[in-house]
Amino acid sequence: MPSFELIPILLSFPAFFYIATYFALLFGLYRSKSIHTVASPFISVIVAARNEERHLPGLLDCLFRQEYSGYEVIIVDDRSSDKTADIVRSRLSQYPHLKLISVTATDPDMPAKKSALTKGIQASKGEVLLFTDADCLPPPTWIKEMSAGFEEKVGVVAGYSPYRPSAFGIKARSLWEKCLFSFIQYEELKISLWAAGSIGIRKAWLCTGRNLAYRRKVWDDIGGFQRIKHSISGDDDLFLQLVQRTTAWQIRYIASTDSHVPTKPPESFSEFVDQRTRHFSAGKFFPASLKLFSVFFYGLNFVLYFGLAASFLSPSFAWGLPLFSIKFAVDMFFIVLGSRQFGISPPFFSFPFMEAAILFYNMIFGLLGVLGTFRWKSELK
Question: Is the CB of residue 141 less than 8 Å from the CB of residue 258?
Answer without folding.
Answer: yes
